[in-house]
Design brief:
The protein has a single domain, classed as Chloramphenicol Acetyltransferase, CATH 3.30.559.10. It contains four helices and seven strands.
Length: 138
């Protein structure tokens, strides 16, 4: 087990439903030429889901004492990691502009991460105009 760092602990201690403290990143990509968007994203999700070894922090979940975050806290390997939970697929409503993308990402970002699981999510987002797709991770 790896000890939880001071910055991570501070973020978790100050987090609330009204003030999520996780960070997120959004990347937009052009689809490869002559590929079906849904098939491509399905294969991408399958490839990511089949990852065998995840480096810290992706394979670790939060472990605390009876004192919760007031006591010692550690990252513990999650031996029952469910990649299907962490890698998700979303579709934008038409017309698939950045406006719809940002609305979706705003909603996704506002929900707290499940502290009983490794603290990350990845969303593969289809339906952007101009044969683009997005990846949002938090």
């Amino acid at each position: 087990m790896k000890k939880l760092g001071l910055l991570d602990k501070a973020f978790l201690l100050t987090e609330s439903r009204q003030t999520p403290m996780h960070v997120g990143g959004l990347s937009v990509f052009n689809l490869p030429r002559q590929v079906n968007e849904q098939e491509f994203l399905h294969e991408l999700a399958a490839g990511l889901s089949n990852a065998q070894e995840l480096q810290h922090p992706f394979g670790g979940k939060l472990k605390t004492s009876l004192l919760g975050l007031a006591g010692p806290a550690y990252w513990e390997n999650d031996t029952a990691l469910d990649m299907g939970y962490h890698i998700r697929h979303s579709a934008l409503p038409a017309p698939g502009r950045y406006r719809e993308l940002f609305t979706l990402v705003s909603r996704l970002h506002s929900t707290l991460l499940d502290r009983t699981r490794p603290l990350w999510e990845m969303h593969l987002i289809e339906g952007l105009q101009n044969r683009q797709f997005a990846v949002y991770a938090k």
